[in-house]
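WARN retry 2 of 3 for item q-0093 after timeout on previous attempt; input resubmitted unchanged.
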Amino acid sequence: MIPSSGGVFEISADDTLVYSKKATGEFPPEFNIVEQLQQMMK
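OK item q-0093 returned
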């Protein structure tokens, strides 16, 4: 985890951006993030 300021919430895995609250303006449903991370692991 990398702390930041200004309300930015982003999730990255292996230097790949998985989700950006800055881009969408909202928090993701947890199951969406879990599904995306599982797909990346395949």
